[in-house]
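Posting this for the archive.
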Amino acid sequence: MVVGGSIGVCCLAAVLTIPAVLDARDGRVAAREPRGPHSSAAGATRLLATADANGSRPLGRVFVARGEKVPDPPPGIPGLPNPGEVFVSPRLHDLLGAEPGVGKLLPGRERGLIGPAGLAHPDELYAYIGMRPDQLHGGSPVAGFGVRWAPSPVVEPSTLDILRFTLAGVVLLPLAVFLSVCARLSAATRLRRLAALRLLGLSVKGVGRVNAAETVVAALFGAVLGLAEYWLANQIIGRIGLPGLKWYVGDGDLTVTTVAVCLVGAPVLAWFAARAGAAKAAANPLAVRRSGVAGTPRAWGVLLLVAGMGIVVGYCVLGVLDRPPRDTALSSLLMPAAVVMVGIGLVLTLPVLSHRLSRRVAGATSSLPLGLAMRRNEVEPGSALRVASGLVLLVFAASLAQGVLVELDQVSRPNTVQQDYRIPLDGIGAADVTALTLLPGVKGSVTEQRSWFDGNLDEPPPEISATVATCAQLARMVTATTGCVDGKVMRLTDERVPSGPERIGEVFPFRFWQGSRRTTVDVTVPQREVRFRAHDLSAVDSDILVPPSMVPRKARPDNATLLLTSAPDPAVVRGVLDGIGAVAPTAAVDLVGTNVEGMQQIAVVKALLGAGMVLGLVIGVAAYLVSVTDRAVERRAQVTALSLLGARPRTLRVVQCVQVVSPLAVGLLLALVAGKLTESGYLITGGGAVFWDGAGVPLLLFSAAGVVVVAAIGALPLVGRRVDPELIGRD
């Protein structure tokens, strides 16, 4: 009980600390935010903050021009940098050594590193750059640093609420079941002992107090051990971090609230579980001592499952009819309530299903092992709750977590078949351009160029844009093309966009650079056209298609942009962005139609949900191992009796395996169906475009099948080869 309780408390402390980690990160960002002066800004220090990117990682730069009034520096640096001085974060310092090209973004010499107090997380790319007042254009006066709230929290409040609710389903609900299981270890042996105390004259309240006292003491020791386990885990994982989420070890330190909840919550839960467990022995001790047959489990838990699934199915019907609910306030109440009712209903329905299924199978089968297993599950239906509930809840919560990720992905990314990138080619050499087109994940590339005009003219003439590409290159960038001919200049017409003014016969010059020499190519807008259909939020938006053969050899286009395309999968997009950052670290990348901050937020949410799933898996596996081992210990007397009656060890192993697998398989199947329906209901009420997500079904099916196989294999060694006949006498 102490060891099992410590695992549960360690997981509980981890979940309770997640908000503190996020708050500490936001607090450091808020502490470095500049404050404007309340009075005249004359002579004030000016500051300009920019948000760039190095690949898929944000790069924050703060340009500082010291004035007559110099405020106290932000946290993490000893003083504001003088002109030509730069303070960089440790990770940016390492990046400068690996990619010297990033130094172009940081004019000046490195004066020192930014301390942890001035950084959101250890891997942040951040710099303070000192400049002269005449060099800084567009800066704002600053009187000091530090605001109450971070302007861009690491996780938006609405998303954080969803995350908390999901983690509660993924971790806290299985955790409550696990702690209850730990509080009732050796339940059969303990009930016989408590029944003996009752028969010796101890009162009903006394029996309850004895059971509660020893359980609470064990839970308290387990809570202390669990807090120590969490401290050790934080020291290790805090230095390594999670994919997409890094934090300082101090951010994950135990707070007074977390310690109080763990030291009070675990014993209180154990006390309630123990009082409930002792009620049977106190009320009817003779039935316990003589191994009386347990009554039929109550079906009131089924009502919770039916009520929750009624709400979920109702929303699914609205989704099928393409009439998603408009009342978000009502849905925000009904959907969480449905999730809770379905989760609790799944757990409480397992004994009922196990009892009914076991009775039917035992009455219909002629197999001795199957009959013995089903009769045992019929007599002891509560064992299904103890064995299968943790893993059943884990499968149910995994579907819910998948729905949360799908909804967040819709918020930050468009629902499109590909992702386009726009990269201005100013300052990028020909070799780097070739390297960008050959990056892993890039499916296609074209060059877009604006026509040239003399900037000295009083009124600029009309201009057009041209896509320099072959027909094959164009086809990889769009959905479909019609009428394209290689080697010809053609007008580009998007089938879904109304065509602009006809400029057939007009001549537009395009400028190229051959070394230091300028070359101009005149292009006449032709009659012939190529019709194409662009995907949603496409980067292709030119007027004409120019074949590469018209471009002078070894010439660099002027005022040009490189367009790349890849699959929309977030992992592919991040890989392409990282590749762009490695080839051209100073290039400005426009991720067409995609919210880069949203991608960062999704990375954090995925890391937290992944951590929650790992904790849930630990809890589920621990609950299974504890329950199965405990049942095997309790059943030693029955196994001995069957052995003395002539049952072979092979038969007993089959019986043990079927006893464990049957309620688990039924529970997992029910959890899969309920989980996917609940996920669909959640997506329908979320207001997104995706209602039905089948991407996670194969993985869930494979995981559920793997759990059943592992459970079956794990149950086989629990029937020992040597059986002690003295166990019969003890019983």
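The chain has a mean pLDDT of 79. The radius of gyration is 34 Å.
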